[in-house]
Amino acid sequence: MAVLPRRSNHIRNDKLQKETNNAIQQRNLLGLSLRELKEVAVQLGMPSFTGGQIAKWLYESHVGSIDEMTNISKKNRERLAAEYSIGAMSPLDVQRSVDGTVKYLFPTSSGKFVETVYIPDKERATLCVSCQVGCKMNCLFCQTGKQGFEGSLTVTDILNQIYSLPDRDKLTNIVFMGQGEPMDNLDNVLKATQVLTAEWGYAWSPKRITVSTVGLRGKLQRFLDESNCHVAISMHSPLHEQRMELMPAEKAMPIAETVELLKTYPAFRKQEHGKGVRNGGDTPRQRRLSFEYIVFDGLNDTPEHGREIVKLLRGLDCRVNLIRFHSIPGVDLKTSDEAKMERLRDYLTGHGVFTTIRASRGQDIFAACGLLSTAKKKEEKQ
Q1: How far is CA 41 from the centre of its chain?
Q2: Closest CA to 205 of 195, 197, 213, 215
Q3: Which of 19, 83, 115, 292 is catalytic?
Q4: Can you tell me the distance from the alpha carbon of 75 to that of 198, in angstroms, rounded to the nearest whole number?
Q5: How big is the CA angle at 227 (ends 356 and 59), to the nearest 5 degrees?
Q6: CA angle 226, 59, 179 (to 5 degrees)
Q7: 110: nearest Cα among 152, 163, 63, 68
Q8: Cα 229 to the chain's mean position, in Å?
Q9: Could you tell me which residues come within 8 angstroms of residue 184 by beta carbon, excluding any fewer than 6 positions away?
């Protein structure tokens, strides 16, 4: 494992405190919509079109300071800088895996920390972003859940993981699969994806963004209605009682109820010949539905589970991603062996549920699925 030299906690914390104080004293531009930026301009006595200029400097040029917005007059830049800051904060720490995965530690505007994982893979480069510090869901197998919940990220905090990423220009995909439950911070996640996909923002296709969730009543339906991004459901067991032991969120919104909701959306339904329906009948389906399934040895890797998954997902045009479990302290679970995972994959695919085994990345730097946590960083700060 190659790890960049770490700065002392004293230096990191001094820098974090300075940036946090600036964020508290001034409002942030990063994360504001075009409409909001125009309102800012007018409120400060500038022409409305200046808001559009600010948007281009933010989301196209990724400027580091307001003074770099050179097509805005110096007087107006001074007005803007007196009330607002960009809101960008550089990563405080970087760890590099032997497989090329990179984990960044970002500060938040509240003085806490989140981890973000950059995963290069041939022509693709995926960023796994966080939306909360810790998580309320407390899934048995997840290190983030063991950290407890310390707060939701602002839109600025979410976008800063992209804005201040050294590898930003190489990104092809973003997945909301880092720390936290996206549906538990839905307003800010939706706002962040709006900035990422709007013509005045990053102008990304929604097909480049996947949002993962355990499924929260009311919140999931709102996300499906208001966003065109791909969706990934954390399943991990098709059996109600077992899933409830693994994931307490099952009690509030059972996986069966989640699947029934998904079946009400034409984009996710299979046609009789097995292919996904077409939006409007003319163009291929644009939105992808997947189910995440961590495979535990002797627990959820049996033929019964395969049959129940096929039964549960019948009628949906979706895929299942099988994921290896990465051990965490205090949890007596083991990952299923390769042969069992392959049998489960082949059974599901053979019965109409396209299934893959996801490659594990960044395990040596605790960047793999379920391993993200900033609890130690909190202890260091204290």
Answers
A1: 31
A2: 197
A3: 115
A4: 29
A5: 100
A6: 60
A7: 152
A8: 12
A9: 132, 135, 136, 137, 152, 216, 219
Record the tokens describing residue 29, joined without a space: 């531009």
Asked about 115 being catalytic, the answer comes back as: yes
In this prediction, residues 30-52 reach a mean pLDDT of 98
Say whether 353 sits in a helix, a strand or coil: coil
> Which residue has tokens 């994982």?
117
Tell me the residue type at 173. Answer: N
Both tokens assigned to 124: 């693709």
**Structure confidence by residue, pLDDT tens digits, 249-288:** 999 999 999 999 999 999 999 975 545 444 333 334 579 9
Tokens of 157: 């905090």
Can 318 be counted among the known catalytic residues?
no
Q: Residue 243: what residue type?
A: R
3 state DSSP class of 36: helix
Distance CA 220, CA 261 (A): 9
Alpha-helical (H) ranges within 60-114 are: 74-83
For the record, the structure tokens of 91 come out as 């990563």
CA 233-236-241 angle, to 5 degrees, is 110
The active-site residue, picked from 139, 142, 318, 369, is 369
